[in-house]
Amino acid sequence: MASRVQQLPSPKFACADIRFALDGQTAFGFTPSTYFHKATSSSNLNLIDLHYMSSEWQIDEKFGQCSTLALHPSVEVLAFASTTPNPQLVHIWNWPDGDMKMPIRTISHSARDPVLATTFSLKGDLLITAGTICRAWYWRTGELFREYVHLPIHAWPSIRVTDKYLIAAGEGKHTVIAVWDLYTAEKVHSFNTDGYRSVSCSFLDNTVFYVNGLHHVSSFRVPTGKPETVYTSPKTTDRITMCAASGDGILALLVVHAPRPCTMKYDLRLYDSHRNRCVGEYELKAKPSHLAFNPDNSLLFVLTPGSPPLVFTITSSLKLWRERRELLLVHRREKDDHVVSRLPEHVLRYILEFL
After folding, report:
1. DSSP string, 223-288
2. Alpha-carbon distance 267 to 92, whole Å?
């Protein structure tokens, strides 16, 4: 049973990165000014209604271009850092009130260190900021809670929290993934990856998926799981530079190859890890900046600076199998409830392959 993949019409807004609210209805899209030759004075942060694929909201332009963004679990507070004029500051907003002239609080991550990534804890009490060091703050008061140190120094452009741990992907002499206890700041695990220039990570519950080398995608379980290879490109000429994982076992991969000298082509490859097969491949006109699944794993956004995102709706083989299994059970129960309820899983799977 193959996964179903369908491309949807592109929305009208353009963004290079996106953050989804846990309610699954809204998101914030933005284009960091590092993707342009020069920063513009206007704001680049937009509220997106995912149901209608519309962009509705902008922040005051005097706070500069948004470089990184975090949404509070309550979907009532957001925090963002800008590239100019003060990249070390994080502004916190209570956005549903509609008063967007001034933030409710501003936190200085450090005197010189620009903020590369931000996120809230799952409980919502802490704001984590990352530059060359990671720090946790009580965002309501601005009080520093913990510092998370890894030597040698790395830049941490990607961070994620679970209920107990902080996970960060870092760039330095080697690309590295580190895990700390969120509340004690004790480092519990770290390892170098064979990343291509930088680490491309996708965080899913307690599992981290990351590009390992030029041709592999690996994963490990937090906190101290052993890294395992989950995908290997069948062609040695293909280079995997970006990955994203859905909760239903779909891997979205950016594959780069050069069919001719000085010519680069970019393909989006969708891989079903439950069936161990490619379920779709799409040629892209430009290099994407970000791949992201929405919270319920039904939509995949392929984001490119200055262009409307490509949106795919994906139903994995696992989800299809569950849906058809339920339909079969309902149908059989109408005839003989006793027989169907005793059918083992492997028998049901065999039957469903031919539906």
Report:
1. TTPPPEEEEE-S-TT-EEEEEEE-TTSEEEEEEEE-SSTT--EEEEEEEETTTTEEEEEEEESS--
2. 37
- Which DSSP letter does residue 198 get? B
pLDDT per residue as tens digits for the range 224-261 = 888 889 999 988 888 898 999 888 788 999 999 877 76
Beta sheet of 307-315, edge-to-edge order: 4-8, 307-315, 299-304, 290-293
**Tens of pLDDT, residues 189-224:** 988 887 554 567 787 778 888 888 788 898 888 888
CA distance 118 to 134: 9
What whole-number distance in Å separates Cα of residue 309 and Cα of residue 50? 12
pLDDT at 47: 75
- Can you tell me the distance from the alpha carbon of 100 to that of 184, in angstroms, rounded to the nearest whole number? 35
pLDDT in tens, 283-305: 998 889 889 988 888 889 999 87
CA-only gyration radius of the chain, Å: 22
Tokens representing 143 are 């009080």
